[in-house]
Specification:
By secondary structure, this protein is of the alpha/beta class. Helix content is about 50%, strand content about 10%. It has nine helices and nine strands. The strands form two sheets. Strands 1-8-7-2-5-3-4 form a seven-stranded mixed β-sheet, with helices on both faces. The chain has a two-stranded parallel sheet with strand order 6-9.
């Protein structure tokens, strides 16, 4: 009931505002369970995909969205429940994986559509990363449900990090033909089978999306990018400090030998002492360093 109301309001609003294009709707079964395995570019992926489907699709979301305190927290929880999200506690890696698998199997046992992001998190740079083998493979093999590869296209451009107002543009969704993995039935705990199945699905997602594939996990890529950004920031700070130190030395040298120019040659001076020439540059350099130290 609530899902239907949210789909009418949020889903129709998204379709009206952004006009997403979609290919492959004919691959989604009219009834019965199926797994929608999608790339993950944006927070909005879990809203755009359900918006273009006639059937309800359920994704899992981190439990923090459902347990935040206050009125805002309650409204957020109601919204996520309304759009078909299920809470999963990700505080423990193994526990989170098992909870996600159980949730997926329950959804599929009801004959519904279950959405999953094999990468495990959003792509940090728009590229497609290695799929995590446990969740998708185990849900697919235990349930026997077909897997539909899904490609979200350009959703990351709607609201990049740091942008408050979404950009009105047309994202796209491509849904591939169902993939049958019945040949692996009963082998869901074999890590080589899990890897093989996941790689097959990721290849189809890559083919549908046209993304560059990176053979590493997105979580590792995020850590790597964060470390690179930190090193760049430290290098920039060191360069600024060196430049200011050089300016201080030049100013001190100029002040010592009396060189420098009067910034007010016309003689119009305010009341009180005023620094000029090298002394002024020295004071400015020290002031900049002091302000940076306070900000840090």
């Amino acid at each position: 009931m609530f899902y239907g109301a949210m789909k009418l309001s949020v889903g129709n609003g998204l379709k009206l505002a952004f006009r997403p294009w979609v290919e492959g709707l004919e691959h989604v079964p009219a009834k019965g369970p199926a797994i929608l395995a999608s790339n993950h570019l944006s927070f909005s992926d879990s809203f755009f995909l359900p918006a273009v489907l006639d059937r309800k699709v359920t994704f899992i979301a981190k439990a923090e969205y459902f347990t935040s305190p206050g009125v805002k927290g309650k409204l957020t929880a109601a919204f996520f429940k309304g759009v078909g999200q299920l809470p999963v506690d990700r505080s423990g890696v193994r526990g989170a994986g098992e909870a996600a698998i159980r949730s997926g199997l329950e959804v599929l046992a009801r004959g519904e559509l279950f959405g999953i992001y094999p990468e495990g998190t959003r792509s940090p740079d728009g590229r497609l990363y290695r799929g995590k083998p446990g969740g998708l493979a185990r849900v697919a093999l235990r349930s026997g449900a077909p897997v539909l590869p899904v490609a979200m296209v350009d959703t990351e451009k709607i609201q990049p990090p740091g942008q408050v107002v979404p950009k009105l543009m047309r994202p796209g969704i491509r849904i591939g033909a169902p993939m049958d993995f019945s040949r692996y039935r009963g082998m869901e705990n074999d890590r080589f089978i899990q890897r093989a199945l996941t790689d097959e699905v990721m290849y189809e997602i890559m083919r549908l999306s046209g993304q560059e594939y990176v053979d590493m996990y997105a979580t590792a890529a995020k850590r790597q990018l964060a470390e690179e950004a930190k090193r760049e920031a430290e290098a920039e700070k060191a360069a600024r400090d060196a430049k200011d130190a050089e300016a201080e030395r030049d100013a001190e040298s100029g002040a010592a030998d009396g060189t420098g120019t009067d910034p007010d040659p016309g003689g119009r001076r305010p009341a009180g002492p005023r620094l000029s020439g090298p002394a002024a540059r020295l004071a400015a350099a020290r002031r900049r360093r002091h302000e940076r130290d306070r900000a840090a």
